[in-house]
Amino acid sequence: MKLVIAIIQDEDTANLVSMLTEEGFRVTKLASTGGFLKSGNTTLLIGVDDDKVEALVKVIEKVCRPREVTTSVAPMPLVEEAYMPYPYNIKIGGATIFVLDVDRYERI
Fold first, then answer.
1. Is residue 25 included in any domain, yes or no?
2. Which of 18, 28, 56, 59 is deepest in the core (most CB within 10 A)?
3. In terms of C-beta density within 10 A (0-12 exposed, 13-18 middle, 19 or more buried), how is residue 52 classed?
4. For residue 89, with 0-12 CB atoms within 10 Å meaning exposed, 13-18 middle and 19 or more buried, which class applies?
5. 64 within a domain of the structure (yes/no)
6. Residue 46 burial by CB count (10 A; 0-12/13-18/19+): exposed, middle or buried?
7. What's the pLDDT tens digit per position in 14-27?
């Protein structure tokens, strides 16, 4: 058995949880926050048999696609104490997936 931890963008959460449930996966959803943009993420905990890990990853890949967004950042001061923000395109989305071995599993 494996424990899959998937960190995804909030925008993808509803679709992914729905699709995973339809495919027979049990999902626990946790709210989390990303470090770079301080934006909302969702962390999913999914227990899965070893032979179903690849099917699970394919569902996640299908729903969680990277996309580009524009944000404003202030990288350096122009004059002392003054910053000039400028638009900056970054790629967000997709998923970060960790697959861990489970030594013991009990459902009570």
1. yes
2. 56
3. middle
4. exposed
5. yes
6. buried
7. 999 999 999 999 99
